[in-house]
Amino acid sequence: MSKHERPLPDEIGRYRIVRLLGQGAMGRVYLAHDPVLDRDVAVKLLRDDLNIDPTQKRALIDRMRQEARASARVSHPNIVSLFDMGEDAELGLFLVFEYVEGANLKGKLERGAVGPLLCSRIAREVGSALTTAHGAGVLHRDIKPENIILSKTGAKVADFGIARVPDSTLTRDGGLLGTPAYSAPEAISNGAFSPSSDQFSMAASLYEAVSGRRAFPGEDAVAVASRISTEEPPPIAEVCGVDAHVDTVFARALSKNPRSRYSSCEEFGEALAEGLEASPRSAMPTLPDERHRREVVDTSSSRGTRIAVGGAAVGALVAIAAFRLTAQLREPPAPVIVTSAAPDAGAEMPVAWLEPAPKKRKRRRHPKPTTITDAEPKQEDGGVDAANADATSGAGPDGG
């Protein structure tokens, strides 16, 4: 605690102070309880140890009032709501916000980079929130990981009520008031804040969320400001295992020229989310993967098996046919007797119409050839009914 810092107050306005939640370059945030509405709130006020002259302090207080009134007009599920504004006799102007339980993005990054899916959700939610605020004429001016709270219901943008000090070169103890690691170059050089400068700050914050490192690293504020104005952050898609389009999105949102950035924070957030959710090109297979190769082998094996089985079946049929043909050549055909009237000549004779004659004792000699005439033949031993000649040949190996 510095010599100018007051001890924890018991009350600020009607709000009973519970504990200190945190503090930044300009203000402190307390967890407090509202006894009237019986709910917890977050109370913010200016730090009492700022080494600024009275004129600058009055300007800052007036700016806080203006921003608080503007914030009260913005309603969005991903923006911390402003509940109240008041002035304490000793502590001065204070703002009362919705108390959001959860760690901020900065605390999350202390344990490493945020995964692509979580980061894509944050990009959409923060982009939508900022675009809604910009539509209401409200600029944030201080988007950074500390001001993005990760609650159970999603990301929430905080600190809409406290504007940045208008003079970006305002010093305290010989240095810049806060490290401008996420500020747009035009905001650093001439204090030109706009929806586009909020987009630059959002992009710098999400660049760190994806990669785990700052887009413009450094501890010295002047050196960081110089990097923001002159250097481009290195590509991160390959080392982070995300689609290469992510580098293109960041390059546009972090452009030195505000006109080259996306038309809105929502458009930027959507483009970044799509890039983070896409499969990285380096992970796309250029050769068949193991599963595909296995399916090809299985398919080929199955096809080969079917061909082998079909070939074996054809071979078996050919062998059977050859065997029957050989047996037929060795033995004379058995005579057949027509048991009922035959169909018209030339018609195919069903097998059911034929009845084999009683087998005779086999002879060693071959039968004499039979001569077929137009006249009805006489039934003789070893003879064949001419009317049944076609039927007999038709009832060969396949039809018998």
Molecular structure report:
This protein has helices spanning 54-72, 105-109, 116-135, 185-190, 195-211, 221-230, 237-240, 245-253, 265-277, 290-330, 389-394; strands spanning 11-12, 15-23, 27-34, 39-46, 82-88, 92-98, 103-104, 148-151, 154-157, 171-172, 175-176, 336-338, 354-356. Strand 2 (15-23) and strand 3 form a beta hairpin. Helix content is 38%, strand content 15%. It is built from 11 helices and 13 strands. It folds into 2 domains: 11-282, Transferase(Phosphotransferase), domain 1 (Orthogonal Bundle); 332-400, no CATH class. The N and C termini lie far apart (113 Å). Mean pLDDT is 75; it is low at 162-178, 282-303, 305-309, 333-357 and 370-400. The longest helix has 41 residues, at 290-330. Helix 3 packs antiparallel against helix 9. The chain is of the alpha+beta class. The strands form 4 sheets. It has a 6-stranded antiparallel beta sheet, with helices on one face.
The total domain count is 2
Order of SSEs: EEEEHEEEHHEEEEHHHHHHHEEH
Mean pLDDT: 75
Distance between the termini: 113 Å
CATH level-four homologous superfamily name of the largest domain? Transferase(Phosphotransferase) domain 1
Assembly of the depicted chains: single chain
SSE layout and pairings?
Layout: E1 11-12, E2 15-23, E3 27-34, E4 39-46, H1 54-72, E5 82-88, E6 92-98, E7 103-104, H2 105-109, H3 116-135, E8 148-151, E9 154-157, E10 171-172, E11 175-176, H4 185-190, H5 195-211, H6 221-230, H7 237-240, H8 245-253, H9 265-277, H10 290-330, E12 336-338, E13 354-356, H11 389-394
Antiparallel strand pairs: 1-2, 2-3, 3-4, 4-6, 5-6, 7-8, 8-9, 10-11, 12-13
Helix pairs in contact: 3-5, 3-9, 8-9
